[in-house]
Model the fold of this input.
Amino acid sequence: MNQRTPSCRLKMGNSYAGQLKSTRFEEVLHSSIEASLRSNSLVPRPVFSQLYLEAEQQLSALEGSSRIDNEEEEEEGEGGLEPSCPPNPYQTHLPPEGCCTVDGFCQAGKDLRLVSISNEPIDVPAGFLLVGAKAPGLPDHLLVCAVDKRFLPDDSGHNALLGFSGNCVGCGKKGFCYFTEFSNHINLKLTTQPKKQKHLKYYLVRNAQGALTKGPLICWKGSEFRGRPTTAGLCSSSLFPPLDISGPLAAFSGDPTPGTSPSIPTGAQPAGPASGHPPLTIATSPAVFNGKDSPKHQQLVKNKLLAVTRPSALGILSNSGPPKKRHKGWSPESPSATEGGYPQGGRSRAKYENAVMSCVPQASLAGPASVTFPVVASGEPVSVPDNLLKICKAKPVIFKGHGNFPYLCGNLNDVVVSPLLHTCYQSSQSLSRLHEQYGAPTPQPISEEMQLLLTVYYLVQLAADQVPLMEDLEQIFLRSWRESYLMEIRQYQQAAPQPFPPTPSAVAPVSSAQLPWLAGLAASSCNDSVHVIECAYSLAEGLSEMFRLLIEGKLAKTNYVVIICACRNSAIDSCIAVTGKHQARILSESLLSPAEYQKEVTYELVTGRVDSLGAFFSTLCPEGDIDILLDKFHQESQGHISSSLTAASVTKSASLDVGGAPACTSYSLEPPHIRPFQLAVAQKLLSHVCSIADSSTQNLDLGSFEKVDFLICIPPSEVTYQQMLFHVWHSGVLLELGLEKECVSKQQVEQHVLKLDANAQTKFKSFLQNSFQNPHTLFILIHDHAHWDLVSSAVHNLCSQSGPSAGWVDRLLNCREVKEAPNIVTLHVTSFPYALQTQHTLISPYNEIHWPASHSDGMDLYPESKKYFGLSEFIESTLSGHSLPLLRYDSSFEAMVTALGKRFPHLHSAVIRTFVLVQHYAAAMMAVSGLSQMKSYTSVETLEITQNLLNAPKQCPCGHGLMVLLRVPCSPLAALAYERLAHVRARLALEQHFEIILGNPSSGLTVGKHFVKQLKQMWQNIEDAEWRPQTYLELEGLPCILIFSGMDPHGESLPRSLRYCDLRLINSSCLVRTALEQELGLAAYFVSSEGSPEKGPRSEGVESDAEKLSGTDNEDEELVTEGCPSEKRSPVKRERSCSHDSASSGLSSKASGSALGDETSAQPGGPWQGERAWSPQPCGPSEEGRAPGDKQRLRASQGPPSGVSRHSPGPAPQPDSGLKTSQRDVQVQTTSSSQLSFLGSSSSSAAPAASTPAPQAPRCSMAKACRQPPVVFLPKLVYDMVTATDSGGLPKATSLLPSHSVMWASSFRPPLSKTMTSTEQSLYYRQWTVPRPSHMDYGSRAEGRVDGFHPRRLLLSGPPQIGKTGAYLQFLSILSRMLVRLTEVDVYDEEEINIIRPGDSCSAGCCGHCVMLHTRSTELLQIHDLQEEPDWRYLQLGDPWPDLELFKKLPFDYIIHDPKYEDASLICSHHQSVKVEDRGAPRRPEDLYVRRHTARMRLSKYAAYNTYHHCEQCRQYLGFHPCYQLYESTLHAFAFSYSMLGEEVQLHFIIPKSKEHHFVFSQTGGQLESMRLPLVTDKSQEYIKSPTFTPTTGRHEHGLFNLYHAMDGASHLHVLVVKEYEMPVYKKYWPNHIMLVLPSVFNSAGVGAAHFLIKELSYHNLELERTRQEELGIKPQDIWPFIVISDDSCVMWNVVDVDGGGERSREFSWSERNVSLKYIMQHIEAAPNITHYALIGMRKWSSKTGSREVHEPFSRCHVHDFIILNVDLTQNVQYNQNRFLCDDVDFNLRVHSAGLLLCRFNRFSVMKKQIVVGGHRSFHITSKAPDCPAAVAPAQYVCAPDSKHALLAAPAQLLLEKFLQQHSRRFFPLSLQNRGHPVLSVDCYLNLGPQISVCYVSSRPHSLNISCSDFRFSGLLLYLCDSFVGASFLKKFHFLKGATLCVICQDRNSLRQTVVRLELEDQWQFRLRDEFQTANAKEDRPLFFLTGRHI
Done:
């Protein structure tokens, strides 16, 4: 049998061509091998094992494998010739006579070109695929072939049968069994051996139109590895782990091939057959740099290189003839593999197995464990000595370096071989494509000699306890290469210009002959830590020498052995062996995957190998076995309780049972609430969703959704599942979303939480079906803990090692249905997003949301009362200046582990560490219980933990205790630790003192009855008899040891009572960034800001973004007030957030944040077991998020609920007009004070300790512990990794590989920078990491292309335990509210002010001749002598339009009724003599918009919309017009002269192509001439005649500019008037709107300037149109003279329908309905005599409108907000271009004084939306001085001239108006509250504040003014008065003695001239100190004013 084996193997490798032998033996053999190759497991089939593996020795197996590999090399080889041997041409057979030989046609003459037959039907047999073949004669064409898919590889490049089977799709000929024959038939005309791998390039697929097109590349990589059955046989040994991993830098069966010399790039060889292949640039996988991995780029690289390496299994074989067919056997000339692989006259290298990376997942840091398959080797085998492990006390780890590596045989179990270092070398020699763009010489890679020398230097400088890291070595290579490259660049730049770059020098800085000497010299200074062995012939002798020295004990002090062989033609072979016991153990164990780690530990436990360790521990105690000592102690304690600890506990327990539970005054549970950062993140999530909806790709149509549903996917952990159920239940989100009514049960909540296990598929299918059946519901698919289970479902199907839960995320969340569903948005939530930030990620970088850093610039926007304590803070505590670091390691524990590791080298270190730690805890418990002699057998740290655990309950009357977290990743070891500690606790009679809990992800919690009773009765007041704790959070205050098992935490949150986090047992596989941060994240806490540990220097960790968080328009005003404010708490309070999650509150009213943030403090008091339904509404703010037990506890501690609880404050009620009275009534409040005062009250949110008389030292030890985060104990290795910093100052842990499932794209990557934000860090990983083949994103080739990202996929990342769950639950709530808000809007709902109501009683005793003016602030103004004249009222109730003659008789109502002018000065008229009783105190300007009342209104179909509205009807309106390209518009200048401005005004129009028909352009040049105007006589109902102008600023997103629905689709002309600097952003958001761009001089102007230019432009355009149309025979007066000036917040319009009993009857009924703006405009435009009215307006809507307001259909009064202006009649009346405030009131008075008519249609009303951004609020008054505060008081807006007053950055006019509004009493003291003596204001109306009234008069000739003969004015205001104001004009008016004067001018010179011209000094007294100016700099042109007193 042994003699037949080689020949059998030869046949085995060559019989796949279809010529199998007929014997049963070979049939069975073939089937067995094929099944083995197809299997994902490397355990071979039984027949294969019996026939071969059991009958042969390993060496002969390796030789056989070499033959197979060599045969494959000939089979697959295209570069297998030695360099000196020229390639032989391929001898093709002549085609038969008469056959077609045309390229692109088969021999039957049928066209095979893809371009020709792409649309023809092709018959493809079952099991065949269409592929495209490349023909050399037709480089631009593909030939269509049908190939059996069994002979094609899968997506990972595997499992392709050897051989070929194909059909011709042209002539239909079938049954081609040889690719050579097939290539001849289709006329490929090859000059080389036909190979399917070389010529079958692409799969062919059919597109949506059914045409055949080129599809993805056929992945031939890795096919060589597939053919090694012997490898599988070897892997069945217990030494070799299964092939389910690949290291971070790859695991290869062959050595990579570097260049022939240091001067030739890697992979370059002299020209040969391999030159036709693209280069392999990176060892692990083809690197992708900036998307350059294209065929064109590969061709470019290929042409630059002479030749490239390609995969092979063994050495290059010389063969002078062409390769033979498989079934013909080997060529006689080919040398045997066992004779050496070196051809004569040249050198050879083993080549890359470049596709081994395609095989299955790996999860270890350092790569594959041990020898995953036989390493490519040559030369004599090296025998590994027996008993090597026993002698050396550790398995040496041998890292292959350069060149060939010899065979190893013998005792292979005692040695570990890894290709990591070789891969690192090869990766460092691969030239980065980033440098190809430079014109400098091609940069040389680091030579092999320099690589090895740098490695020696690195090993020499390592400390004795340090472990080498590949990342460190890569950075060393990068720095070295960069220095040499920069030197070359400098030399190139200094050289003279040449036609071609000079050839790089081939001289290496270090020669191979010098290398051993230099390496030895470097190692001579390290005290034998590094030993260098120089070989004369091959590495085999060096390895043999090393093994000899190890056996002889001569390397006892040596940690690293460097073996160098430099004998082969100036090339080197090398390897490095790690022989140090500490380093070798850590490295060998780090090569294990998690599954292998568990398997090995389980094997050691099951086989009893740990018994020797247990026996050793039993001998430690001086009194004998420790169990004997425990039994003795137990017997002594039986029958009596001698321990004072036990006695105290029993006494306390008895007293508790009799007297009830005492109250702990120093520690209590805190109520949950939403924190500001959580609300901010929720808003940002909403903003990103809106951004997706707003994008032009139309991937999400928010307007089509009516409600929100969700599903939360979590890892398969029972604790996490129960925890998430509670969060969702507690948040009230189901009620908020309307998914459940009135109450919520556990079954209802379970429908929205999915545990990703084998049972998940059914519920997920139901979710998909629900999403399909409800297209108008937006489904949010939340993937929490998203860094877990990233295994590809395809790999999971092949790999049995993945575990039962692996691959479900990919299978469910990445399925086609989820990706294509338009109503599913996927949100990935994780604390460690690195594995989702690769080159192939599906998540756009623009869809990432990062948690804001607390130390960022924006933290002031979201003040937190708690300080988050995470990894950077723990590291910070280890720095100098901290008394006790919170991050520690146990030196005595580490020393004992090291000693035992040497004593028991065959045991895994995890087993040793677990046994030692359990022993320490057992000894510590014994020592604390009274056996003081045991203190010597534990560490100080463990003794401290145990003492505090046992003593803490004694210090609290309630027995509150601490939690100790003992992290044991390996489940069998966790079970062992639990059993041992429970046994020790029982023998010490401590069962009643603390609990020991085994936490396993696969099972729930088990807590003893005694402790459950304590939890229910003493601490949480839970009455449910069936209640049991189901989450770790419910263990709050329970003294316990939680043994937390599982390889990775699954999102479980821990309570605030966690005091110690013992991570001493985490294994070395956590040395990747995700795993390390995940373990340390268990200890993350929120601590009180006042009680946080002392601060030291901030850690230089990578910071998060200081990004601005903003909401969107439809929720902005609500979201600002909906979140609960941060509450002030006492220093003893600490808050812990859950599982990077947070729960949410349950108050479902619109005013409360529905998702509360601190889930940890809310204890689930058994909502499930009793199936107790819960409805959040009845809960008050102190109870809203609590379970029933919590509420009872609150009631017990609070007493009667008569006041606000000071113990457990809840979210304060927020100012939201949407709150109904019934909702307010359920909230517990002590007073009826306003909500603002409630919010501002600190006492309402006081901490529980505030109720105690004085803060004293708390008795409860847990309350003390809650002042700071837990203490964390780490292994020394991990501690050093965490606390060390790299060269850039970053923690070294950040430079680790980010995740097991990814790998670095290149060694040539820059290090992370400490200044990187989270966004920049994401971009870094997206550029420099690629997923492994096992990663679910591996098949996604996004490569940075935007179209590769999934449009509806988001990623939320933030530190662990910070509250992400609460944030996304809050996001669901506000998203739901936003969808509702998309159909609702807040409109101002305010009653008109200053209303005249006849019949109100007067307290002045004026005999009924006065009426009362009712103001909005409940004050009363008495207006005397007001006659009720019949002709004052317009009594024609049914008139649709005003009668002109009757309307002229109406007096003008000077009084302002618009409620927004409540704080404006009252205007007096000749009809009124006013006395005031009380008008209230002036209101602060910032209160104006907070206190203005609003009402929630549902949008009608005639509403105006902002930019967030999208619907099919208005697509063309917004720019999606089929005739025009999107955003296509032109810029036109339009100039006109205006004398008042003193120069020509030049405006710019931006006119979209679709709107050009509204304008007139010149026929020559296309210059804009005018805007078309209709005729007065036009009666068409299809369009609106009046152009609409909307001035706007700061509201590009929120302004209501979409008038399509408001106009009911009618044609209209709408112009946005914007400032120049805002033009780009408005054009971006409104590309299809006409824009009028104001000149740049008006960038800082107010609304008055916009109104002024609109009016003047419109009049100028009217003149142009009259001139133009007059030429057409149209009279000038027939041109339509009206324009509309509308605010950007007008949202809806209404009409009142009146049903009167008669024309003059006062009894009538009326109703109000919503109508379109088209209806209103056409009604007004159809009014008779319309051109006789100067201004037309309408009433502002109010729900309080009564019959009086609508009784009179028309009024002659002020009009605001939406006006129709006659630019013809108002030609000589201008807006004041300098005004910011009240410019419409000022203009109304000017129009009336000019004798023109103002008409308000009272039956029409406009609704104004509340928009809290933009408008005049965009003007901020700040100081120019950098050190001054941002806010400046209004009193500082003016100053004395030439003073040193701080100058302000604001327009002078704005400063003046703001100052007069707030401080005019300084200028007019007699006018204060003096309505009978108002201030005389000439030609202007300025707001002097609500306590000063004014009388407006015009100086213009023939103007209408009130009669002032009866008035004696208390002041005179002259504002920029012109020549119409003269001395004689002023002398008509009478003033009180002491009345004051204020003269305002542009400069001081004008001020003096005005005083002289108006002869003011005759009646007014002036002083120099009474001169003022606005606080502007001279360049800002301040205003000057002078005050004086009347003589």
In short: The chain has a mean pLDDT of 74. The two ends are 134 Å apart (CA to CA). The first strand starts at residue 128 and ends at 135.
